[in-house]
Specification:
Chain lengths: ~260, ~110
């Protein structure tokens, strides 16, 4: 039986009295690529923040490698964070640092490794991402796809067991998006890294997921393999896959407030 | 992690026990420092009891290779588990290092 790397048990979170995440539970096992999909505002990014300890749930528990991160102190949470990496939506590179320096950051922050060892590790990670010749460039001097790859090199600098990806292919053309998807798959299949990917890009879901969960209004409405997702008759899922404006996912409510505002 | 060493003529056989990771690789590096300081030019690293090596461990081995090449020295690695060997293969480092199945094979013609 594979080890559970991330587990959510009855997780709920509200902001200003509005429930954004509603009683979510699932397990993600070692080496699995688990995709969380949903429309903008569905709560998937909040879920990611809950899983990485950036937010604490109002109810429920979040376990990372068996450790309940909702009850640990800041020091212990820091220790848990060393076991996972994160690729941010806009890569979150520091513009004033070179590619090399950006990737070296977590190694300098979290370890006492000698500078020469750090230098070699950075070269290894950049080589894995096909970016070694750009090591002395600044983020502004490279393309969006390259910045994502630098962000990924930084996310795996500490050899994490888990990598969280926030919209890894958003803003990229299909080919570069495909490159990022292939890197995610390589890390998962070759280095046995557990991948948790938040996305609304359906082509990514079918290409990289071992399992996927569809989130709507903070609840899981479907969970399954890509094949199960493809053939599901869940109306939310069907609407999302087809990109249809008509269906149970309501983007706009009939706004009659305008009449009141115009004193009609 | 535990490191023991044994000498056979001008060859040092270094046996590593335990994971080579962010916490332990600095100790391995210190041991390599002592080999270089004592002008050891032939090293065999026995990995029979190493269940896992991370990037910091691999970087430590790369650095040793860099340092030994400067003094016309060399090292060989032997007795890797399948898991550790796969890490070397994925990272393509098996092309860089001399890797042997057994210690006796590593000692031959060294």
């Amino acid at each position: 039986m594979k080890k559970e790397m991330v587990s959510l048990v009855g997780v709920s979170k509200s902001f200003d009295g509005r429930k954004i995440i509603n009683n979510v539970s699932f397990d993600i096992v070692q080496g699995e690529t688990f995709v969380i999909m949903g429309c903008s505002g569905s709560g998937k990014s909040t879920l990611l923040r809950l899983m990485t300890g950036i937010l604490k749930p109002d109810e429920g528990r979040v376990f990372i490698k068996g450790k309940d991160i909702t009850t640990v102190g800041p020091e212990e949470l820091d220790e848990v964070r060393k076991s996972f990496g994160m690729l941010f939506q806009y890569s979150a590179l520091l513009d004033s640092l070179t590619v090399n320096e950006n990737v070296a950051l977590p190694l300098k922050e979290h370890t006492k490794l000698d500078e020469n060892i750090v230098r070699i590790i950075v070269k290894m990670k950049l080589s894995l991402m096909g970016l070694r010749e750009f090591q002395n460039h600044y983020p502004a001097q490279i393309s969006g796809g390259m910045r994502k790859r630098v962000g990924l090199a930084r996310a795996i600098a500490l050899d994490p067991d888990i990598v969280f990806y926030d919209e890894p292919t958003s803003g990229l053309d299909p080919v570069v998006g495909g490159v990022i998807n292939r890197l995610i798959m390589d890390l998962s299949k070759k280095l046995f890294i557990t991948s948790v990917v938040v996305t609304h890009d359906m082509s990514s879901v079918f290409r990289i997921a071992d399992r996927a969960a569809m989130i709507h209004k903070g609840s899981v409405v479907e969970i399954g393999t890509p094949q199960q997702i493809k053939t599901s008759d869940n109306p939310y899922l069907r609407q999302f896959i087809n990109g249809s404006p008509n269906g149970p996912i309501d983007f706009f409510r009939e706004d009659l407030g305008i009449f009141e505002e115009l004193s009609l | 992690m535990k490191i023991t060493e044994e000498k056979k003529d001008d060859i040092v056989i270094c046996k590593v026990q335990g994971e080579v990771n962010l916490d332990t690789s600095p100790d391995l590096r210190k041991k390599f420092d002592s080999f270089i300081s004592s002008n050891t030019k032939k090293i065999i690293i026995n990995f029979s009891d190493v269940p896992y090596i991370d990037s910091s461990g691999l970087a430590t081995l790369i650095e040793l290779l860099q340092r030994l090449r400067k003094i016309d020295g060399k090292f060989r690695i032997c007795n890797m588990s399948e898991k550790v060997r796969s890490i070397f293969e994925i990272t393509k480092l098996c092309k860089l290092f001399e890797i042997f199945d057994t210690q006796s094979a590593a000692l031959e013609n060294f």
